[in-house]
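Schema walk-through. Below, the input block comes first and the output block second. Nothing else is stored per chain. Lengths vary across the set, and this one has 316 residues.
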Amino acid sequence: MVTPLRIVFFGTPEFAVPTLEALQTSSHQVVSVVTQPDRPRGRGQQLTPGPVKARAVAMGLPVLQPPSLKDSAVLAALTELRADLGVVAAYGKILSEAILQIPRLGMINVHASLLPKYRGAAPIQRAVADGESETGVTIMQVVRALDAGAMLATVRRPIGPNDTSIEVEHDLARLGARLLVDVVDRFSSGPLAGEPQDDSRATYAHRLTKEDGLIDWARPAQAIHDLVRGMQPWPNAYSFLEGQRLILLRTTVGPASGAAVPGTVLRARGQDLLVATENGTLRVHELQAEGRRPMAVAPFLAGHPVTEGSRFTSSG
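--- output ---
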């Protein structure tokens, strides 16, 4: 029999919403949701709540949005919750040792990689962009060192050759939510001992920047295709053609070709946009001009004629 636990939940983006929902419908009680402050979003830059706050409010849960976790009032508010366990899912800030010590059974994290590989802020995007064939979710104990806590459970998901980070994240969010509730149920019997990580095998998935999406055509076609898949939904893989910034959204590895300068447009007619790379070619199926909607190649070429022999470059 599962003994209900009092849970304080830390999370902010869409990835964390399924975990919050799973906890809310479990045997346990979410006593508060801690999420990042509302941010300016959209063209009007109006203050808008993140996905976790929006869902928590809709479910009638108490919400805390401290600008800083170092404030003594924040520590006092969290202590007053009398939480048995803290659950973290993509909160977005490092938790202090003082906060980690507040829940009676400590804190656990839903991390979107097969630890110790891809610790850090962007594990899904980095795994897809690196061409990994598999990823997953690890439930781990939270410690001060970044994503280095003992592992309590894992679930795996294959990465298909054309899967994007968007698709992988959607699946991992749901797989991780189910796994997390199973682990929380186990905590109802008392503290759990996890499996220590092998730090010598750790890799880091650093936070993405806009520059991470810039395509280097002097790389193999497969590597560029993986970058296109991995950099979605932001910063997206992009390049410049005749001074125009173009975002590549859907590609496949094209046929082998003769020697051509990487980035050269080999074919641009009908539904075919073929670009030379260092090793092979890349076939573009969907792309987006700056400030425009995404388009399949055929309508894009109809409205934006591309000259065969022109070159994609790294600057406008």
